[in-house]
C-alpha cells in the first residue's frame, strides 16, 4: 500500500486523524519507531477499519532488558457500532502477542460526552459510555499513562464567518478587532521561517513550563507536513517584528491547532486572538468542517493547570469534547506492571534533562 492509498482510506472515516496519516508514520519512523499499517475488510471487500501502528524498543532499568511497546495513535479508525470492532480489538491484542510486546496502547476518538458536568451544555453519550465498558470487558484497560489529551475543543466550521464570530465570547471578538486596529498582521510562513519558529516555540516552552522535544523532531514534523500540503504555519507580526505564531494542520475534513508559540512582546495587542481567527478562516478555505483546538483540561475546574487554556479556547467558540483517553492491553501483565511503575520516574528524569537543554539552546 502506498501513501496515497493509505491517506484515502484514513480520509473516509468520520473522524480522520492526522496521527493516522502516512506522513505521521514517516516522521515517527525517523525518530525511533517502526511503522505498520493494518486494514480490516468486510465480506464485500470494503475497508471498515484501519490502524497505523507504531512499535519501539526501550531499556527498562529494573529488569535491564529491552522491551517492546506498541501504540496506535488516535486509532484504530472504525465505526464503533460495527460488529467488526470485536475482530479489530482481538486482532490488535494478538498482534501485540505476536510482536512480543509487553503492551499495546490505543487512544481512539471515542467521544463519551460533549460539554462537561454541571453545565447546561453537558451531553453525555450513554451509547459510547457503554462501548467503553465493552472494550474493557474484552481485555483492555483504561491507561494511567496518557500520550494525547483526553479532552479537546472542536469548532464547527460549517457556519458562515459572521456566525462563527457571533458564536465567540464578546471579549474574544473585541480582542480580535483590537489586534486588527492596532496593526497586527498575520502572514503564512514558509520553510525558511522554521528556524525562527522553533526558537519562539522553545522560548514559549521555557516561559510556560512545558517540555518539548529536541529541535530536529519539530523541524522534521513541520517540514514533512508542509511539503505534503497538510500544514500551514501562521505568524503574527507588529511593525515587521514576529510576536507569535501557530501551526495549522489540515487533512480531509479537519484542521488542528497543535503547536502555538509567542514572545513577550506586544501582548497587549492580542496577536494570539487574531492568529486563531485567521486559522479558522483558513481552515474553512481548505474545506474543513471541524477545527480541533487540541487539548482541554482533564478536570474542568480552576485548579487544573489548563484552566487558562480552557477559557481562551472556550472564548473562540470551541465546544468541549470528552473521551476516556487511552486504553492498554497488557500482553505481559508482569512486565506491564513494572513498566507502569518505572515509567513516571524515567519521564521525570528525561523532562529535567530536556529543560536544561532548552535553556542552553536559548542562551547560545
UniProtKB/TrEMBL annotation:
Keywords associated with the record: Acyltransferase, Cell shape, Cell wall biogenesis/degradation, Peptidoglycan synthesis, Transferase
Top-level taxon of the source organism: Bacteria
One function term, GO molecular function aspect: aminoacyltransferase activity
GO biological process: cell wall organization; peptidoglycan biosynthetic process; regulation of cell shape
Membrane-spanning ranges: none
Family: Belongs to the FemABX family.
Name of the protein: FemAB family protein
Source organism of the structure: Pelolinea submarina
